[in-house]
Please model this.
Amino acid sequence: MRDNTLTRGFLWALCLALGLVSRPGPLRAETNVDWDSLRASFAHYAKEPTDENAGKVASFLPRGLGYSAPSSARRNHLETERFVLKHLGPLEGQIFRGKSPSVKLAYRFYTVADGELAESLDIMLGKLICRNPRLFLRELKANRHLVSRLDSILMNYGSDFAGDEAGHAAEFKHRLKCLRKVRDPELQEIRDECVEYMEMNP
Model:
């Protein structure tokens, strides 16, 4: 039995070396996004920001991080980002009203967002911390796989406190206090992760 195992191992290694088989790689994110449909769907959502329409927009977005637009789609990608950024108001309004599908949509946009759009999403979701800390933690828990850096949301205050160190420090303490107040057992783990991160990175 041991000899057979060694033989199979040797043959597998030989095939790899000769290029006859390929080594398994990581799963790739979706390689195609229907940018035209995504823009049209978001335009409809911006006019009628309902829960149903938020779900429709999300259906056109990748489900995980790692999407890389092929060269043929980069212009469409950039145009879509600009369009979404220009019409973020209704999404922000629904998030601040506590509409869970819109919060989910904001997280899903991370799958294609770069630069200014990604930062705008960070700031928007960060402002939810004290408006509705339970909703913030519940959706962060559900979408933790879409957040590569916690500080980008927890401690990105945008232009509201630019150059205002005292205001910045006060907002930091306020967010930390809001998070600590959440006692729901099912949110304890994600709450502790956020609190501990902020305490270690004041």
About this structure: The radius of gyration is 22 Å. The longest helix spans residues 2-18. The chain has one domain: 33-200.
